[in-house]
Amino acid sequence: MTLTIDDPQIEIRLQEEADRRGISVAAYAAKILGAALAQTPSSPPDVRFAPADEWIAHLYSWANNHPTRQPLPDNAFDRASFYEN
Questions:
Q1: pLDDT of residue 81
Q2: Cα–Cα distance, 8 to 14 (Å, whole number)
């Protein structure tokens, strides 16, 4: 396979990095392309939705793991309590 790099700056950097590592440009290019391809998924992830009862169980579990708070006093809902006297 032949790979052509049309950007002179990239070609120079590729040559410099290959020289610094003491390997050929082709070997270095194959190494970095292989690493980049290994990080990219080849197919979209398999997305499966949980049944509704499982979602509900997770929701209740999540909600029950929060600390409980003291309820607000009744006068907190009086319109007069919103304003200073």
A1: 79
A2: 10
Cβ burial of 17 (10 Å; 0-12, 13-18, 19+) is middle
What does the angle CA 41 – CA 47 – CA 53 come to, to the nearest 5 degrees? 155
- Residue 67 CB contacts under 8 Å (≥ 6 apart), including other chains: none
pLDDT class for 67, splitting at 50, 70, 90? confident
Mean pLDDT of the chain: 86
Joined together, the tokens standing for residue 27 give: 């070997």
* Residue 31 CB partners (closer than 8 Å, separation 6+): 23
Distance, in Å, from the CA atom of 51 to the CA atom of 66, rounded to the nearest integer, reads 24
Q: pLDDT value at position 21?
A: 94
Mapped onto helix, strand or coil, the DSSP state of residue 37 is helix
